Amino acid sequence: MVKVPAYIDGNEVAEYVEVGARFGPTLESKEKHANQTKLVLADPSDCCTKPKNKLTGEVILVHRGGCSFTTKSNVADDAGASAILHCKQPCRLD
């Protein structure tokens, strides 16, 4: 399990508790050494097909449904994401 705080303009706006991915960089377990990675919305939002937005190590926020979690993980990994966060609709960053 990993704790993932989300920040906008340096302010923590949400916190997610998730299972670590089997792709992307290893997440640091100690908060003071934690990775800070940009979080973006998946496009398409369910991440069942290749994202329209170019990914270069970002974490993507994806809606549940549409296809299996394994498919979403493979699509995200192939597209260059470092991890995915799976959420109930609607997923929002604000």
Structure commentary:
This protein has 94 residues and is mostly beta strands. The protein has 1 helix and 5 strands. 12% of the residues lie in helices and 30% in strands.
Notable characteristics:
mainly beta; 94 residues; 5 strands; two-stranded antiparallel ribbon
H/E element order = EEEEHE
Give start-end ranges of low-pLDDT stretches. none
Shape: globular
Give a count of the beta strands, DSSP E runs of length 2 or more: 5
Largest sheet: 3 strands, parallel
Q: Tell me the helix content.
A: 10-25%
- The first-to-last residue Cα distance is 24 Å
The radius of gyration is 13 Å
In terms of structural class, how would the helical and strand content be classed?
mainly beta
Instruction: Count up the helices.
Output: 1
The overall pLDDT average reads 79
Strand order of the largest sheet: 3-4-5
Strand content: 25-35%
Lay out the secondary structure.
Layout: E1 2-8, E2 11-18, E3 39-41, E4 59-63, H1 69-79, E5 83-87
Parallel strand pairs: 3-4, 4-5
Antiparallel strand pairs: 1-2
Organism: Camellia lanceoleosa
Protein name: Signal peptide peptidase-like 4
Short characterization:
This protein is mainly beta. It has one helix and five strands; from the N terminus they run E-E-E-E-H-E. It has a domain at 33-94.
